[in-house]
Amino acid sequence: MYWKRFHGGLSVGLWTLPQDDNAVCARFVTDQSGVTVIEYGLIAGLIAILIVVPATQIGSTVQQFFVAVLAGFSP
């Protein structure tokens, strides 16, 4: 791996590393590369919650039904 000067910063392969703090802050604020992954993660978490909560309630209703059926078979 080699380092070379590139547009006022250091470059390694496809990545350009700015040399001053202002450029680092500006690049961090304007970078949108991870936003989609975060959005998909939030959507998946919301869907999981929307599935788990009703499934828990349905499970407790089904359990009560089978307890009542079992009670009907006992003498």
Oligomeric description of these chains:
single chain
- Give the SSE order as H and E letters: EEEHH
Low-confidence stretches: 1-7
Question: What structural class should be given to the helix and strand makeup?
Answer: alpha+beta
What percentage of residues falls in helices of 4 or more residues? Answer: 55-70%
What is the radius of gyration?
28 Å
Summarize the structure in short.
The protein is an alpha+beta fold and 75 residues long.
Give your account of this protein's structure.
The protein is rod-shaped. Strand 1 (4-6) and strand 2 (9-12) form a beta hairpin. It has two domains: 1-31, no CATH class; 34-75. It is an alpha+beta fold and 75 residues long. The chain is built from two helices and three strands; from the N terminus they run βββαα. Helix content is 65%, strand content 15%. The protein has helices at 21-30, 35-73; strands at 4-6, 9-12, 15-18. It has a three-stranded antiparallel β-sheet.
